[in-house]
Amino acid sequence: MAVMLQSGGMASVSATFPDLSNKLSINYVPVIRSDASPVSGWIRGTRKAGKITAKAVAAPAENAASAASKTGHELLLFEALREGLMEEMERDPRVCVMGEDVGHYGGSYKVTKDLAEKFGDLRVLDTPIAENSFTGMAVGAAMTGLRPVVEGMNMGFLLLAFNQISDNCGMLHYTSGGQFTIPTVIRGPGGVGRQLGAEHSQRLESYFQSIPGIQMVACSTPYNAKGLMKAAIRSENPVVLFEHVLLYNLKERIPDEEYVLSLEEAELVRPGEHVTILTYSRMRYHVMQAAKTLVNIGYDPEVIDIRSLKPFDLYTIGNSVKKTHRVLIVEECMRTGGIGASLTAAINENFHDYLDAPIVCLSSQDVPTPYAGTLEEWTVVQPPQIVTAVEQLCQ
């Protein structure tokens, strides 16, 4: 279903984390080391009680000199998205872009900067403020052989195109009896930003996950942003690519050589023994912030960035559950009907016998996101809550 090529090595990303022990704060975007080491083979053997190791230590950080000596180039996440999009437009003349201000303005977050000058106004098409119209136009373009990439200036605005995404993008391959494929990418910024208000803080993964016929992926690093963008464009299926507005300025060194990731694989971020923490997008960094504290107090969490929101990578997730026997899900999506709810059901259905404790899911509050910064902070999961949940889960 999806393009599957072996990816290159994952480079390190580093930053200074703020101390959240006494005060919660949303005014930061922590950056951590990512490890793309694959999980190999099903885990077999006797079940363990999840004994806590008092002297667990974190993996040693890579020093700056060795990181700088690696081949590759550093990009911010929005630049990695643009590089992946540009490479695919150069490779395949059928790839085109459409959306509001994507042309000479370069997009609200500059993902399409300079593309209009390079490829012309017909392949990088500025559209009126009419999401249902240009999303429907993209579906028609895909039916006639093009491979459009639709940018929603804000993912919340794409609710105006819900009919086109659902009834057209998702179902036309089926309702046409296979006569048409809809190789369309729908992408744009979403998630809870910093005081953007309720309408600009939407997490549409909870809305779109039930639509038959589409795939959903969420990028969290420059490396996987570029790899998932290229894979989504090459897919014959309609793909929704979720980008988080607070991750666009995340910097990482990525390979110079071409790579394409799978649309259906999770990423093992940190191996561990005591509990499996499943997360994606911005919450990956909240989880890794909490993991530093957990390691210092003797816990050894395994962290997985699920990346593929539909379908789930139950192979990687299952390997981890069979090893740790405890699961914590951390998401920015709403609790009711969110990704965490679907993931909980999938794990209970497939791996119930391997669980030593009920699955715990930390989600955002079921309220419109407040504009006030302190109230906004309280609606979203914070690292101290993750630490507390793991402590309770491992008792």
Kindly report how far apart the N and C termini lie: 41 Å
Report the sheet-strand fraction. Answer: 15-25%
Give me the side-by-side strand order of the main sheet.
3-2-4-5-7-6-12
> How helical, in percent, are the residues?
25-40%
Largest sheet: 7 strands, mixed
Q: What's the pLDDT, averaged over the residues?
A: 84
How many H/I helical runs? 13
What string, H for helix and E for strand, traces the elements in order? HEHEHEHEHHEHEHEEEEHEEHEHEHH
Seen as an oligomer or otherwise, the chain set is: single chain
Question: Which structural class fits the helix and strand makeup?
Answer: alpha/beta
Q: Any idea what the radius of gyration is? A: 21 Å
**Uncertain ranges:** 1-69
General form: globular
For the secondary structure, the number of strands is: 14
What does this structure look like?
By secondary structure, the chain is α/β, with parallel strands linked by helices. It has 13 helices and 14 strands. The chain has helices spanning 64-69, 77-91, 115-119, 131-143, 162-170, 172-175, 205-208, 222-234, 283-296, 314-324, 339-351, 373-379, 383-393, and strands at 73-76, 95-99, 124-126, 147-151, 185-190, 215-218, 239-244, 251-254, 267-270, 275-279, 301-305, 308-310, 327-334, 360-364. Strands 3-2-4-5-7-6-12 form a 7-stranded mixed β-sheet, with helices on both faces. A 5-stranded mixed β-sheet has the order 9-11-10-13-14, sandwiched between helices. A two-stranded antiparallel sheet has the order 1-8. β6 (215-218), α8 (222-234) and β7 form a beta-alpha-beta unit. α9 packs across α13 (383-393) and α10 crosses α11 (339-351). It is globular, with a radius of gyration of 21 Å. The chain starts with 63 loop residues before the first helix and ends with a helix. Mean pLDDT is 84; it is low at 1-69.
